[in-house]
Amino acid sequence: MFKFKNHAFCLLTAFGGMLLTPAWGEPVAPWLRAYINGEEVVGTTLESRYSTPEDEPASPVIQWEKADSRTGKPVLVQQGKDAESYTLTDKDAGKYFRIIVGGGTKDAIASPWIGPVITEKQAESINNRFDPGKSYQENVDALQKELSEKLKDAVYFTVDTDKLHGAPYAMAANERIALPEDIRPFRENGKIYVNHPFVQAVFKKELPDEIMEEAGGQKAYEIGNVARALKLNLWMGDKEKAPLPNFRMQPMAEGLVVLSPEKNVFSPVADRDLVNEAVNRLFDFKASDEQLKWFRDAKFGLFVHWNPSSLLEREISWERNAARPKDSASGHKNIMDFEYDSAHRRFNPKQYDPRKWMSVAKKSGMKYAVLTTKHHDSFSNFPSDYDTFTIANTTYGKYMVGQFAAAVHAAGRRLGFYYCGRDWYNPYYLTDQHYRYLEYYFGQIS
């Protein structure tokens, strides 16, 4: 979905945890995974959350901070050992919030920012279709059923935006139709066009010759003219901007085009979950035939699985000794492995030099190199405005992914990144607040 210049391929290949200082026997952190529970709505009481090792109760100082943006200057609004919660007021509207657990100590840990805070009136216009009394999969099934009924007579697809690729499929009357590159919708001079093969494949109708024009170096139809010719109503996510500041996943709506006999297909706020699911239907993340051919011909490459777990001489993610949410409706809770999950505090690979790795790879005849940017354990080898469990919050602190990419390009190899959609650390993953995880997921990727 996203515009990467190169493509990653998932192989069962491991790269050892080298260049690290052993850390066995060192004490683990007294608390981990700080986050905020509750909706960012004026009048709501937000609750602090953090994990402590079993049988080791802790009562750290908790600091509540707010800012104008995720990267803005933090302002302290409340702190103390009894500051477990914070009630949002009118003055907090438009602000972002985070907590710092263990404030004033070397073990202090910050939560990701949430926000911005919206007013009660704004919140009333949002229809959250995820019922906390149901499992995640039950909610998705209900969402799919509602979407299928709503768009049963509609055609919809996406087109390139600044953040997202156009989808390789269109939907017509709930039937998925493959769109090869040469028949995908495109933009020119701020307008969206479809060509004749697209119209035949998706609408299975002929359009009047008089609405055909030159665009993109071919004969094509402007989408507004298509809608009028077919007597359909046109809904475009580019124009239906949400007036609410924390309408989740706004980039998902951009690029979505719906042609339907029904008027006012979606409200970009009330129907945010339907909009997101409609876009999800249009992607499958599969490699193209051309990409697969390149990969099969390349045959030999380097795939690096490496992060703080290497300090423990444990397999990445899979030897994280904690119950985790299965990617299903099982309802398993995701708890902590304090030794594993606090290893990042001691991660300081001072001798990290991917140029040496690429020298070996090139001499060995490897055609590509892939770096694990985030595995199931959720640690990100890159800084992120959407999380604190990242390389930025280690002793090392440097941009590991950027160094790797530069070394691969310099060696003339093809670059790939592995990013796992599963997450066995993020507290919102596969819960009734999974929309928070999606915000984090797409925020990190884009």
Describe it for me?
This protein is α+β, with helices and mostly antiparallel strands. The protein has three domains: 32-124, Immunoglobulin-like; 152-264, no CATH class; 289-445, Glycosidases (TIM Barrel, Alpha-Beta Barrel), CATH 3.20.20. Helix content is 21%, strand content 20%. It is built from eleven helices and 19 strands. The protein has helices at 120-124, 136-150, 196-202, 223-230, 250-253, 272-280, 289-298, 338-341, 354-363, 400-410, 434-445; strands spanning 32-37, 45-51, 62-67, 75-80, 85-87, 96-101, 109-110, 155-158, 169-172, 175-178, 186-188, 191-195, 212-215, 218-222, 233-236, 256-260, 302-304, 368-374, 414-419. The chain has a five-stranded antiparallel β-sheet with strand order 10-9-8-16-15, with helices on both faces. Helix 2 packs across helix 6 (272-280). It is globular.
Outline the secondary-structure elements.
Blueprint: E1 32-37, E2 45-51, E3 62-67, E4 75-80, E5 85-87, E6 96-101, E7 109-110, H1 120-124, H2 136-150, E8 155-158, E9 169-172, E10 175-178, E11 186-188, E12 191-195, H3 196-202, E13 212-215, E14 218-222, H4 223-230, E15 233-236, H5 250-253, E16 256-260, H6 272-280, H7 289-298, E17 302-304, H8 338-341, H9 354-363, E18 368-374, H10 400-410, E19 414-419, H11 434-445
Parallel strand pairs: 17-18, 18-19
Antiparallel strand pairs: 1-2, 2-5, 3-4, 3-6, 6-7, 8-9, 8-16, 9-10, 11-12, 12-14, 13-14, 15-16
Helix pairs in contact: 2-6
